[in-house]
C-alpha cells in the first residue's frame, strides 16, 4: 500500500478550480516528483497534503507502517456530515478534530515540508531554528520547566542532540551558531530541510528545493536526497522545475496540468508522453 494516497482531491478558490479530482499514490521509500507548468496546481496540492489548505473535496490518507491509515483531511476539522448524527463515534471524532485539529496534527502524523520561498526564522541562529521546530515534541509542562525535572532536562537534551544530528547530516555543523538569515542561499535551503527533518517525518515534501541553486549545489542536494532515502528510509515527495534533477533521482513522476493529473509513471515514461510534451511545449495552432 502507498504511504500517501490522494483520492479525487479537488480544491476551489471561489470560481477557480486549482485541483480537479486529483488521484495518485506516493510509494513508501520512493522519491516521487510532482511536475507541471506554472500555475498547474503543484503548490496547492502540497498545501492540501501538508494541511495548509483544507481541500474542497476528496481524501488524503497517510498509511504509516504498522498503523491504521490516517485521514489527513479529517485532521483539519471538517464540517458535520449526515452520518455524524447517527454514529456517536464519528460525531465525537468530528467534534474533537474541530476543537483540536489543524496542520500541526498533519505534522505530528509524520508529514513535513519546506517552502518554495525560504521561510526560516532569520533572526535566530541555525541551531535555534532546529530547536523551535521540535516545540511540538519536547516536554512543555510548565511546572516541569520551572522545577527542571529530570524528564524535562532529558527532553531538552534529546532535542539538542536531534538538532545537532541533522545539522551534521545536512553538512551545516560549522554554521550552528550563525544567524539563519546570514547563511549563503544554498545553506538556507539545506537548513529548511534539516528543520523539517527535526520533526521526525515519514514523508518529507520539498517545494522546489533546487530553486536558485548552482549546478554544484544541485548535485549536492541530489546526493543528500538519495542519502535521506537510503540511510533513513524517508519517502520524498518533491516539486521541482529542474528536469535534469527530476529525471535523475525520481522513481515516480506525477504530471499536473490545469489542476489535473495528465500523466504518471517512471521518468522515462512521462518524458515520452505526448500530453506532457504538449503541456510543456504547447501545440502548433491549426492553420
Ligand atoms: N490562495 C489562493 N487563492 C486564489 N487562487 C490561488 C491561491 N493559491 C493558488 N491559486 C491559484 O491556483 C492555481 C494553481 O496555483 P499553484 O501555485 O498551485 O500552481 P503551481 O503549479 O505551484 O505554479 P508554480 O510552478 O508557478 O509555482 C493558480 O491559478 C493560482 O493563481
UniProtKB/TrEMBL annotation:
Pfam families: ABC_tran (PF00005), BCA_ABC_TP_C (PF12399)
Domain ABC transporter: 4-283
Sorted UniProt keywords: Amino-acid transport, ATP-binding, Nucleotide-binding, Transport
Keyword ATP-binding: yes
Signal peptide per UniProt: none
Keyword check for Transport: yes
Coiled-coil portions: none
UniProt family annotation: Belongs to the ABC transporter superfamily.
Protein name: Amino acid/amide ABC transporter ATP-binding protein 1, HAAT family
Top-level taxonomy: Bacteria, Pseudomonadati, Pseudomonadota, Magnetococcia, Magnetococcales
Amino acid at each position: 500500500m502507498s504511504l500517501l494516497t490522494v483520492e479525487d482531491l479537488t480544491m476551489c478558490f471561489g470560481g477557480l478550480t486549482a485541483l480537479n479530482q486529483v488521484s495518485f499514490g506516493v510509494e513508501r521509500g520512493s522519491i516521487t516528483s510532482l511536475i507541471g507548468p506554472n500555475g498547474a496546481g503543484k503548490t496547492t496540492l502540497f498545501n492540501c497534503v501538508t494541511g495548509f489548505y483544507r481541500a474542497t473535496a476528496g481524501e488524503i490518507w497517510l498509511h504509516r507502517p504498522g498503523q491504521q491509515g490516517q485521514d489527513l483531511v479529517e485532521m483539519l476539522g471538517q464540517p458535520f456530515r449526515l452520518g455524524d448524527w447517527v454514529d456517536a463515534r464519528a460525531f465525537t471524532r468530528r467534534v474533537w478534530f474541530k476543537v483540536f485539529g489543524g496542520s500541526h496534527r498533519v505534522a505530528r502524523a509524520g508529514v513535513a515540508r519546506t517552502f518554495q520561498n525560504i521561510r526560516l526564522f532569520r533572526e535566530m541562529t541555525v541551531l535555534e531554528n532546529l530547536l523551535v521546530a521540535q516545540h511540538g515534541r519536547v516536554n512543555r509542562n510548565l511546572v516541569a520547566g520551572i522545577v527542571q525535572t529530570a524528564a524535562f532536562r532529558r527532553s531538552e537534551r534529546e532535542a539538542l542532540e536531534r538538532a545537532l544530528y541533522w545539522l551534521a547530516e545536512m553538512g551545516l555543523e560549522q554554521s550552528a551558531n550563525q544567524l539563519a538569515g546570514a547563511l549563503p542561499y544554498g545553506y538556507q535551503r539545506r537548513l529548511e530541510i534539516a528543520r523539517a527533518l527535526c520533526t521526525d517525518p515519514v514523508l518529507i515534501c520539498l517545494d522546489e528545493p533546487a530553486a536558485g541553486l548552482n549546478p554544484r549545489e544541485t548535485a549536492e542536494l541530489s546526493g543528500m536526497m538519495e542519502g535521506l532515502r537510503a540511510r533513513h528510509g524517508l519517502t520524498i515527495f518533491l516539486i521541482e522545475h529542474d528536469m535534469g534533477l527530476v529525471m535523475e533521482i525520481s522513481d515516480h513522476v506525477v504530471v499536473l496540468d490545469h489542476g489535473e493529473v495528465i500523466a504518471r509513471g517512471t521518468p522515462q515514461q512521462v518524458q515520452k508522453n505526448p500530453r506532457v510534451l504538449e503541456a510543456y511545449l504547447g501545440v502548433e495552432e491549426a492553420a
